[in-house]
Amino acid sequence: MELNHIGSAFIILFAVIDIIGSIPLILNIKQKTGVRPMLATLVSLGILIGFLFIGETILHYLGIDVKSFSVAGALIMLFIAFEMILGVKIFKDEEINEATASVVPLAFPIIAGAGTMTTILSLRAEFASSEIVTAIILNMIVVFIVLKMSGKIEKVIGPNGNKIIQKVFGVILLAIAVKLFGANAKSIFL
Fold it and tell me: What would the pLDDT profile of 160-174 be if each residue is shown by its tens digit?
């Protein structure tokens, strides 16, 4: 294990997970149902480490390639971005509690989404599994801190600040979704 490899993998995953950019989504979920930071963090950790070791095998077994998986994730991100930007409801509000909301949609697909999973598969070509696992764990520590501090963040930015940040990050999420879709759709449709 090399520290510079862990640092590189950490930075790449930090950028893709984008927990700071997800703060408006986290606050929205927290207002609707509440959030369990430890549960969301542990589920995300389990998904990401599990996907590192068996994700490609599962996708292959199901006949799904990584590019198709990425396109599906991009479409979900696209709809979430539309909700954030336009203030419309695309996803049906269901009767869910904070435990359920901490797993879906917070742990998956917001934290451990298709983009993160695809990135993990890509990192396997460049880094050792132990280095990637360490980078995932370090990212989950950051995720836990942000989730735990979401109440303080909400007080600092206030309701109007939350709406503004939600719109801005909705546009950023839309751009990420379009980029992820464009990078992977070419190989599917051509």
Answer: 887 888 888 788 878
